[in-house]
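We treat protein structure as text, and this decision shapes the records that our systems exchange. The tokens are whole numbers drawn from a learned vocabulary of local backbone shapes. Below, we set out a record of this kind in full and without editing:
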Amino acid sequence: MKTLVIVRHAKAEMIKKGQNDGERKLTKKGKEDAEKTAKILKENGVFPDLFISSHAKRAFRTARIFAERFKVLKKEIIKSEFLYTDFSLEELKEFLDANANDKSIVAVFGHNPTLQHLISQIIPEFNEEFSTSATVVVEFEVESWTEIQEKSGKLSLFLHKK
């Protein structure tokens, strides 16, 4: 079985004039929300084997907050530009096959609307809002990441702000 933990980055500062979008940092509230979400994930017995994050500061900082909770070193987080852009399920499967095929539980940190679209592709009838710090845990009855099919994921956990 393979499990994918999909995390939208925590609340970030508004973009400033002349600022690169990838440079936006988390707000204090964003850091607090990420910490709470990581704590709940751990309390629910979900322990990722690998953390993969968009290279954008807000996503990578969110991943670092989660990693700290799970005692994973910053240098062990894979940073990927591909998670910053629109990507398809096929592209994600190929990336996971190349970077995490020996891992059972992988946490991916990225951005909307791409993550919302991904979730709607893999979980039947999932139409919840995927707000900042939202996290879904999706289980697949497969041996390899490449075997994942559309609508084949089983929602195990959905964490979001209320």
About this structure: Residues 3 and 142 are 9 Å apart (CA to CA). The chain has a mean pLDDT of 94. The domain at 2-11+22-159 is CATH 3.40.50.1240 (Rossmann fold). The radius of gyration is 15 Å.
